[in-house]
Amino acid sequence: MSHMRQPKIYIKLPSQGKYWANGSLNVSVTGEYPVYSMTAKDELILKTPDALLNGQGVVSVIQSCMPNIVDAWACPNIDIDVILIAIRIATYGHNMPLTVSHELIEGGSSEFTFDMRLMLDQLQETIKWDERIEVRPNLVLYVKPFSYSIVNKNNINEFETQRIINIVKDENMDENEKIIAFQKSFQKLTELTVDLINASVYRIDSDTGSTQEPEFIQEFMQNTDIEVFDAVKERLDSLKENNKVKPFTVNVSQDPANPVEVEVPIVFDYSSFFA
What we know:
Elements: E1 9-12, E2 32-35, H1 40-45, H2 49-53, H3 56-65, H4 77-92, E3 95-101, E4 109-115, H5 116-126, E5 132-136, E6 139-143, H6 148-168, H7 175-200, E7 201-206, E8 209-211, H8 214-223, H9 226-243, E9 248-251, E10 261-264, H10 270-273
Helix pairs in contact: 4-5, 6-7
């Protein structure tokens, strides 16, 4: 047992344990959660395309490496990046090699090393969730982060919609069939967007009372005016932009006197991120 897995690092969740469904997280008294390295089984799971596409692979690995997480499907999306970065550090160490291509680099590209601890610290400290939206003085809405389950469902639907759009581009397809297929995919994507926005609202306060009942909130969001919907959408878009992973900056110039910095995005493609 002394040679079995032990916690490699401890992390704080940006959500601070809030927004998790009841029973999905064993809340830490200290606010810090142990992270174990991946097992051989975990690594094999992340190399299975179907498991990655339906999200089950990511869920299994998270629950394996973070025992405090009972149900990773309920993980708020503001915690996901921190968790995955921590698992990578616990498994492979804090250095992550990145290939950067640029015209100023001799040979066209070069390998750089990025310290993932910097990103982990930044996310743990800077991710904030401003849930209160005052639409009017007598109407206040509260929004929560999407769960990984909802995010994954959205990704699958977008994948299916893109597949339909690619079919529509087929030159051998009848024009009428193209129009019908495109209209269906566009309508599906629109409905999905509206459903996602509506699902983010978990509480409404007004001058006539307050409710957290999903049934009543859903009814309100489906029958309210565009001002309310836009207010929620703008806040969610703003939070997504402010909380996203910042790019890695590297100097690609060969001349020390004239540095040229370029931004390199960190892509969370699980099949390569954990390679």
